[in-house]
Design goal:
The protein has 264 residues and is of the alpha/beta class. It has helices at residues 53-61, 106-111, 122-126, 130-149, 165-178, 195-212, 223-229, 247-251, 254-263; strands spanning 15-24, 27-37, 42-46, 68-73, 76-77, 91-94, 183-187, 215-219, 232-237, 240-245. The chain has a 6-stranded mixed sheet with strand order 6-7-8-3-9-10, with helices on both faces. A 4-stranded antiparallel sheet has the order 2-1-4-5, with helices on one face. The structure holds adenosine-5'-triphosphate (ATP). Residues 24-25, 27, 29, 47, 49-55 line the site of adenosine-5'-triphosphate (ATP). This is ABC transporter ATP-binding protein. GO terms for molecular function: ATP binding.
């Protein structure tokens, strides 16, 4: 089995973005950006405010239609797919601020991601047909297993709103993982967390990459998180890719240093 850092040559990239450009209300948010995320690797996207990180993320998730360029997931063209279609293509995401139903339990929140693999129609569920019941049981078992994997199974039956912010980020992660993604997009996972929570989550993401062989693209301002987990970092400045390499290489790249100093 190949090491996560050394993906097998015959696998297609988990994500391949080619010459992606995006115009937003007259603003050139992205200009001919190329990104490759190999299977089971973690790629960080950095850049000062307004660099285009969220825009790129939103193009991959289907929230913004690319003005030009191509986005492929394992070789399948997903350019201009809509957000609700993305789980079918193996793409799952988390949000900077977890979007949960605080009054529903942790398990119920996770299960809202589980409908993806369910083949029985709503009528089968309404009639409690055996196949639908079996599928429901399997999905609940898978959700509980993921909560165990993310070390919050003991909170499964609590209202999600009662969890710490870090706990809520784990609930979102479990929900994303329940869809069985090939590519996980993490939007500022570290924001709002304590240093300890950030480092704990960094370990979790590294484990997910190895255990589930999922590729990860993360938009992140927290350089500690970036340095701790990424195989590769891409820096954007004013919608243009200015640097690519290891976290250490990108952090000392003159264009990146200048952009951050200019933004300070
Ligand atoms: N809906 C929009 N309409 C017009 N311009 C937009 C819109 N969203 C973003 N922009 C512009 O696109 C450019 C890229 O913004 P984007 O939010 O992608 O940057 P970012 O790197 O994610 O910044 P931050 O770190 O502050 O979130 C900026 O110039 C921004 O002002």
């Amino acid at each position: 089995m190949p090491e996560p850092d050394a993906p097998s040559g015959d696998l297609r990239p988990s994500l391949e973005i080619t010459e992606l450009s995006l115009l937003l209300g007259g603003v050139r948010a992205l200009s001919d950006v190329n990104v490759v995320v190999e299977p089971a690797t973690i790629v960080g996207l950095v850049g000062p405010n307004g660099a285009g990180k969220t825009s790129l993320f939103n193009c991959v998730c289907g929230y913004y239609p690319a003005t030009s360029g191509r986005i492929r997931v394992e070789g399948v063209d997903v350019t201009r797919r809509r957000p609700h279609e993305m789980p079918r293509y193996g793409v799952a995401r988390t949000f900077q601020h977890p979007i949960l139903e605080p009054q529903y339990t942790v398990l119920e929140n996770v299960l809202t991601g589980g409908h993806i693999g369910i083949r029985s129609g709503p009528l089968s569920y309404a009639l409690r047909l055996p196949q639908a019941v079996r599928q429901e049981r399997r999905t609940i078992a898978a959700a509980r297993e993921l909560l165990g994997y993310l070390e919050i199974e003991h909170q499964a039956d609590l209202p999600a709103g009662e969890l710490s912010y870090g706990g809520q980020k784990r609930v979102e992660l479990a929900r994303a993982l329940l869809t069985g993604p090939k590519l996980l997009l993490l939007d500022e996972l570290a924001s709002g967390l304590t240093h300890e929570e950030v480092m704990d989550l960094a370990e979790v993401i590294k484990r997910i990459r190895v255990d589930h062989r999922i590729a990860v693209l993360l938009v992140e301002h927290h350089m500690g998180m970036i340095s701790a987990i990424t195989d590769k970092v891409i820096a954007l400045v004013e919608g243009v890719k200015v640097a690519e390499g290891t976290a250490a290489q990108v952090q000392r790249d003159p264009a990146v240093v200048e952009a951050y100093l200019g933004a300070a």
